[in-house]
Design brief:
The chain is of the alpha/beta class. Helices cover about 40% and strands about 10% of the residues.
Length: about 350
């Protein structure tokens, strides 16, 4: 019987966004839970052992399109005080451009110049909110940058429009770092930056590639038919993996955002492994969760999925660090992948080998 050899674990800090504790509405039915105040969600984060929060710009300042810049800055400072009071940090602020009636046809790639201008100016406000919350990281999910019908847009021009928008943001704030979050579809049928390779390639096209990286979300990689651990490894190889959104996904469906590891524990194990083995988190990167509350959860336990996902990560981290690397190397050298497969399964299930 092989003996597991433990190795030292890296230290990780965890975050989630307020949208991860939701009211349970879906396209087929109304809310099933009552809203929870932002201040209470921030307190819940601390109680569950999280270190920070993720935000959209209008999570920080609701209805910000209707407010003056001075009002926006005042409300952002209020949220910063709430975080400080709980000893939490803001990981990032992301522009929520896909809700506006002005971005139905896209934000930076909209066919109307006035709507593209709106998206750029709205994003600059997001950068200002970022600075108030004392973070220089801005995640950009290019939600409506693509098409429902291919003939409606020129794909080459779309890429250049996004590049030009990013250049404007990099010039607007010399401290800014942009994290591109790719997704192949939903809400549009076909996204113009669908995968991690596209995202990294786009970053190299900007005026300062050193300040453009990526965020890999588990479900988004799966929706593209890819393995999230491979996508993370690709980002790490380029030194561009600056954040992750861990969750799980039951195949090529809509974006499910299941609790991390709840659908495919082995796939989750390999994500933790690639992060741990290549030093993720040592430069301040966060382990972000993007998981939805099950619609059937009752009000009082509507945050269990967050605590559970964090605990699953830590459980799998222990499995990574107690893996018998000598045995693994022997089986690889012997090209006995059937036995390696059995060993990995036994290790994950806690069975004797």
């Amino acid at each position: 019987m092989a003996k597991s050899k433990s190795k030292a674990k890296g230290k990780y800090r965890f975050s989630f966004g307020p949208w991860n504790i939701d009211e349970g509405a879906d396209p087929f039915g109304p809310p099933v839970r009552n809203p929870i105040a932002q201040s209470k969600k921030i307190k819940m984060a601390k109680q569950m052992g999280f270190d920070g929060m993720q935000f959209h710009d209008d999570d920080v300042v609701p209805d910000l399109d209707t407010k003056s810049h001075a009002q926006i800055m005042k409300e952002a400072k209020r949220v910063k005080r709430m975080l400080d009071n709980e000893g939490l940090k803001a990981e990032f602020v992301a522009p929520r451009l896909w809700f506006s009636p002005r971005t139905i046809d896209g934000a930076y790639t909209n066919n109307k110049a006035r709507d593209r201008k709106y998206a750029i100016e709205r994003t600059k406000v997001c950068i200002d909110i970022n600075n108030v919350l004392n973070t220089s990281w801005m995640v950009v999910w290019l939600a409506r940058e693509g098409s429902y019908i291919r003939e409606s847009k020129n794909p080459r021009i779309e890429v250049l429009q996004i590049r030009d928008a990013f250049n404007a943001f990099l010039e607007y704030d010399p401290k800014l770092r942009i994290l591109i979050e790719p997704k192949p579809n939903e809400p549009v049928d076909s996204a113009i930056i669908p995968t991690i390779g596209h995202a990294i390639g786009l970053g190299y096209m900007t005026c300062d590639p050193s300040r453009v990286g990526c965020l890999v979300e588990t479900a988004h990689s799966i929706l593209a038919g890819l393995d999230p651990s491979d996508d993370m490894a690709y980002g790490l190889a380029h030194d561009k993996l600056w954040s992750v959104h861990l969750n799980d996904q039951g195949g090529l469906k809509f974006d499910q955002d299941k609790s991390f590891g709840s659908y495919n524990l082995r796939r989750a194990f390999n994500q933790v492994r690639v992060l741990e083995e290549y030093g993720y988190g040592r430069k301040g990167e966060w382990v972000g969760l993007d998981v939805k509350t099950m619609r059937t959860q009752k009000q009082a336990v509507s945050a269990k999925h967050l605590a559970n996902s964090r605990q699953t990560f830590l459980f799998l981290l222990e499995k990574v660090c107690t893996l018998d690397r000598d045995l693994e190397a022997q089986l690889i050298d012997a090209r006995d992948y059937e036995e390696l497969d059995r060993y990995i399964l036994c290790h994950l299930m806690g069975l004797k080998y």
